[in-house]
Amino acid sequence: MVTNLPSSLSPHVCLLPSPDLTTVLQDASLPPLHEILQSFSPLPQVITRTTSLTTVSHSSFALRFSDLADTERACLEDDEKRAARTIDWIGDRITRQCAKWLEEIDDHPDQYVTRTPWWDELARCAEGDNLPCKDDGWNHPLSIILAVSTTAPNPLQAITALHSRVLEFPSWVDPTHLLYTLVVHPTGSPLSDEEAGALFNAVKKQYGLHAFLLPLSLPSPPPPPVPVPALPPRLPPPSSETWQNGSPTPQSHSSSSQVVSPNFLKLLEPDIEQLAKFTREFLVMSLIPWMEKCVLEWNETYSSSRRLPLRLFSSTRKFFGSSAPSPQYPVHNSSASVSSLPSRSPTHNPSQTAPGSNVLAAPPSQLRRLAEFATILGDYKLATGAWESLRKENKGGSDILPLLLSPSPAVVAHASYALSTIYPPGAEMSPQAQVQALKCAVRWEAGIPTSDFRGDILEGERWLVWAAGNAEEPPAALLLAHAAFLSVQKKAKRRAALWYLFAANQLEKCGIKPLTMFFLRKAHELFSNQPQKLLSPSFWDSEGHRSSQRIGFDAVLSGIEHPLGRLLYTTGDTKGAVKFFLGQLRWSTASSPPHAKIDPDADESKEANLDKVLLEDFRVAFSHLKSISTRTVDFRDLKLPITLVSPASSYTRLPRDSTSGDQAEWERREEIWTTFWRTRGKETLEKSGRAAVGEPFWVDVALQNPFDTEVILTDLVLVVEGRDKDTLWINEHVTIEHIQEVVLHSKESRMVSIAVKASQAVSLTIPSITYNFLGLLPARETLARRGRRLQDTPQQRQTVSYAPDILIRIDVEEASQELAVSFEDNGLLVLNEGEHRKMKVWMTNAGHKSIGELWLVSGQEDQMWLQSGAHESLSVVAGSTETLNTGNKLSSWSPNAIPIDKELLSSDSTFVTLTWRPCHIGSQQLCLLFIYRETGGRAFHCTRVTRTYHVDPSLGLSATSSPNSSIDHAFYVNLGIFNTSSQSLRVSQVTAISPTWECHLLTPLSSALLQPAQLTSLSFDTSPLDASACIEATSAFVSRTLGSVLNERMIEPDEPPTLDLTCCHASAHHSCISMHDPTVSSLFFSEKSRIVASALAQSHPHIPAITHPQKFPLFNPLSVDFLIFWEIPSEQRTGFMLLSGLNLGASHAPLQETIETIENAKVKRSMYAETQREKMEILQSIRDSEWNAEMNPLVVTIQEAVVGHDFSLGPCLAPAKFSLSNHSLTHPCRYVIKFGSKNEGDFERLQVFVLVPRSFADSLTGI
User: Fold this and answer.
1) Over pLDDT 70: what percentage of the chain?
2) How many CB atoms lie within 10 A of CB 1188?
3) What pLDDT score does 1147 carry?
4) Which stretch of 117-121, 330-334, 559-563 has the lowest confidence by average pLDDT?
5) Parallel/antiparallel/unpaired status of strands 143-149 and 178-186
6) Shortest CA distance to 722 belongs to which of 771, 759, 770, 772?
């Protein structure tokens, strides 16, 4: 609850001095009378009474005095114009004084810990407004003092003239006021003291007891000045230009409005005592009793109206009706007796209409005046009830209730509602609304105790932010600044920084630079102070961040530093501006986290423009700094806050290294070589390689532009250090390329190659690179990568520690061994799917030592055959059959030895022919790693070679099978070939490959071209071979290996049984390619291994792929593969496609018994659900695999025959011929024929030709 009301809620007293009194005061070098009396306000220890006659003690009681003529003229001004002038006037006062305030704060910071001068000034301006307004009655005059002096020729006539003067207030000004007469009797008056006393008695008799005789000495010359409290600032009157056409012409301003009042009075001590006596007597003996009397009468009316039920009034209107009363408007009655009760006389005065309206505006209601009077007198219980009544009627009150009620959430609701009635949320604030909101905020801050106002219940600083709204004027900015000041006292630093930033942005638009810079510095200081993070150290370790690392809403800090830098630049602090602009670069759109964007729907062009503005500001400021510096500028404290170099992607490159290819792919090939050679020797592969003396090598530096705009880097130079070498030796023997300029476009990533050449053997380290950012700021960035995380000791596991940084190192030595490899034709290869192409690769010894051993490491799916000399393909007669023996084992991925006739001496060359067949469609790269060394026992070196190729689709293959009704052939296979390429192809040869089946094409193979999108079908008859032994051996091998997998036993090293593959050729020519051709057989087995390995990896994901060759054979004995050779005669291009996965014949689930044993066994379950689920998935994948397939081996067909018979002669008996085929190649099959009919008598006419006892029943069909 309020202890002392704000001065703006105190009684307003207007003074009307006579001309002679004004002259007396001017002659005594005194200000106008209302300013003299204002110096004695507030009055201490004033006692008032409530309606219950309870005394209320006021420690101070304020009064506001003003000149009546000035107040009357001010009421004629439009409210919006006066509010706009008020805002401009406040802004002008702040602009003129802010620099002085900041100097005082710098000199005496301790004096401004609890208050700020700009808020005090804003509060004094808001509290000093005493002009009446239509929204409330606080500034409406409660009393009018008519003052005359005894120096007038006829003082009584002068008093009569003042009492007869008509008040020129508008109709909306409350006419209820107290008339008071003051007679000033100076020492030099023509009247004596007795005559003055007689005059005073006459005045009391004629105009009432509210009068006072004020004797003053007023010596001449004036006495020394006595300091008095500064008067509250008042809005100056408008100039003649501000009045609109048609408005009343303003009268000449009094001298009091044109002269700034001093903070002293030239009065003697007796005069000061007399003035103080008058002020207190006027308040205690006249004004307060009159107000108490008004409150008593109005409260009686208010209480009686509350006791009457509203139902009575509604019923009366319902039954008797109501006539609309004529509107009655009170006007001021200047002749009202001071002894009479306060009246609100309803008379009409046409001259008192509101400007721009034909209807007279009404003054404040009696209930509102009751609430205001009760509030002033301290009768808070009555005032609270009256204000609540007004609030319920939507007539105000919410702005005063926070001053009268104890802190509670309801008070916050009152304040919020009061502001929402002034202006709707989100709407643009008018000047009048801004002034009203400012008054409310100032009253709340001054009237509510500070501990309650900024407490956790009220959070009054938020009220100030609500009052500021979306206005962009200086008063709104200072409201935000004071809210930030209160938040700092509450330790809410982040919130305070944000509000200081908003205040600074608004003041910058108003041109008040000193306060703008001060608020920005405060915001920067508060936001840079990181809050304490009470988190476990393990949290930062798990997140990969340092505990001191800034994690927050960085857009706020960016919004602080950018305008602060611009203000520093405009005020002459160029270096300070450069520092802020440089720090701004770390808040670019790329380096900021996703949550740093204030508006997620913002246009990307605005973000790009933001980066461009940041860089341009830095460039202009830094260029200006360099131009004004008379000496070399010290740039050591100017560090680029962003990184443009990516050390993790930077590396060295030798002339023999490939510039393309995925680095991970090269590392995988080197790992394959290491694994392959580990069982053959201990020699190592020098992966990194060494540079040669006199030969340039390159450092590929990865640059990345984080900005949304173009960035220029100039003078890029590597920093090179040598082991045991000084800088002078490096400058003399190492040549480093100097790149003049690099332009990085928006978000561009680029690899920049910088050449380095050493003239002597040395070990070089390249720790960093230097460049000039935007061609201005020298910068250095490291090329070192952070070492691995150390976790070897308990101390290292508890405290985050890393190994030393990994630097770019390279050894330069005399050229000893170097192999240069190149393709004979290094252009882009365009191939069709399945095409095999011969490529000649030349290898030259570019070193000094000889090369005696060469190896080639290709990719896992690169199908390749090496041919060192001349070779002719093998062919056989078309339609013939071949047998190809195979170990039936999945081929492993291993390097290929390159045959050479003799050692390659220095500068010697040789070549090898590669027959290569790509596997996948699309654009890819062929990556080949050549391994070489001098002789046995020496370390290996490597050379990387790449070639880009593109593969287009060629053929689409499909195959279907069905049992054949012929006794000679078991199955009928239909092979579909679809041309998916854009060229015409010819199917030149089809070879069917199977261990147990022999397939023959039914019709000759056509030699016609297969046009694009054309389909052709080929039909084959298949006959079984006598190969039951290989089927049983292979099934036993698979049962043993997969049984070991299911039983989790160790698999003994074993090889699958060998197979003889029967190859049946069909060709469009007289001869066809033999499967014994080393190129064809090698590529065929590679393609078959790739297909089988891919299928196994997909169907058995839980069985490691490295163990597949020990568990699964390459060929299923029942499988049939089709090898389709195609050619494009016009381009001399050939290739083949392999169709695999077709199994013919019946199999009998050889793994079923093992699977059932595993399922029925009592095995201890694992405590881990993942392990148990994995076991079940392995069991299910083996159950569904081709090695556990099962089908009915018996196929029955009926031979159709046409029988002619005349049923008039009787029934017909006709033979039915059934053909039964057993498609199992390993098991015999017995069968039973049963006949069924609905009529049992039909069985007598059926003849059974074959009836064998049932001895075999298939588990699926039950036959």
Assistant:
1) 85
2) 21
3) 85
4) 330-334
5) parallel
6) 759
- Asked if 561 and 580 touch (Cβ cutoff 8 Å), the reply is yes
Tokens of 615: 């860089």
Q: Residues with Cβ < 8 Å from 1063, sequence gap 6 or more?
A: 881, 882, 883, 884, 991, 992, 993, 1075
Q: What angle, 0 to 180 degrees and rounded to 10, lies between the N-to-C axes of helices 474-489 and 460-468?
A: 160
Q: What gap in Å lies between CA 994 and CA 1123, rounded to an integer?
A: 11
Averaged pLDDT for residues 1026-1049: 86
pLDDT for 599: 41
CA distance 253 to 69: 9
Q: What band does 1252 get if pLDDT is binned at 50, 70 and 90? A: very low
Residue 341 confidence class, pLDDT cut points 50, 70, 90: very low
Six token digits for residue 668: 């995988």
Angle among Cα 565, 571, 577 to the nearest 5 degrees reads 25
Q: What are the residues whose beta carbons fall under 8 Å from the beta carbon of 732, sequence distance 6 or more?
A: none
Q: Cα(992)–Cα(1124) distance, rounded to whole angstroms?
A: 9
Q: How many CB atoms lie within 10 A of CB 1157?
A: 12
- Straight-line distance from the first to the last Cα atom of the chain, in angstroms, rounded to the nearest whole number: 101
Tell me which H or E stretch contains 1178. helix 1169-1183
Residue 549: what pLDDT?
58
Angle between helices 493-510 and 474-489 (to 10 degrees): 160
Torsion region of 517: left, alpha or beta (phi above 0 gives left; psi -120 to 50 gives alpha):
alpha
CA distance 1114 to 1092: 7
Q: How far apart are CA 404 and CA 379, in angstroms?
A: 10
Cβ burial, residue 13 (10 Å; 0-12/13-18/19+): buried
The whole-angstrom separation of Cα 1199 and Cα 1218 is 6
**Sorting pLDDT into bands at 50, 70 and 90, what band is 350?**
very low
Q: Are 586 and 568 in contact (CB under 8 A)?
A: no
Whether residue 17 has pLDDT greater than 90:
yes
Helix, coil or strand: residue 922: strand
**pLDDT score, position 293:** 94
Q: Which helix (H) or strand (E) holds 193?
A: helix 193-207
For residue 352, the 8-state DSSP code is G
Cα(498)–Cα(557) distance, rounded to whole angstroms?
A: 9
Half-sphere exposure of residue 593: CA atoms within 13 angstroms, side-chain side: 7
- Using the structure block, give the residue that is written with the tokens 């501990």: 451
- Give the residue carrying structure tokens 């040789």: 910
For 102, 1043, 1101, 1105, 1179, the CA distances from 1155, given in Å and listed in that order, are: 90, 8, 19, 22, 7
| Pairing label, strands 881-886, 971-979 | unpaired
- Distance CA(312)–CA(310), nearest Å, equals 5
CB neighbour burial string for 171-201, b if at least 16 within 10 angstroms, e if fewer: bbbbbbbbbbbbbbbbeebebeeeebeebbe
* Phi/psi at 640 (5° precision): -70, 120
Q: Please give the average per-residue pLDDT across 1227-1240, as a whole number.
A: 70
Query: Which of 657-661, 976-980, 1225-1229 is the most confident on average?
Result: 976-980
C-beta separation of 1079 from 865 below 8 A: yes
Tens digits of residue pLDDT in 422-474: 887 667 788 999 999 999 999 999 999 988 998 889 999 999 999 998 888 99
pLDDT of residue 563: 82
Q: What is the mean pLDDT of residues 1225-1237?
A: 77
- Strand-by-strand arrangement of the 211-216 sheet: 64-67, 12-17, 143-149, 178-186, 211-216
- Picking from 505-519, 1053-1067, 1122-1136, 1161-1175, which range would have the lowest pLDDT averaged per residue? 1161-1175
| 1123 touches 1064 (CB < 8 A) | no
Whether residue 1145 has pLDDT greater than 60:
yes
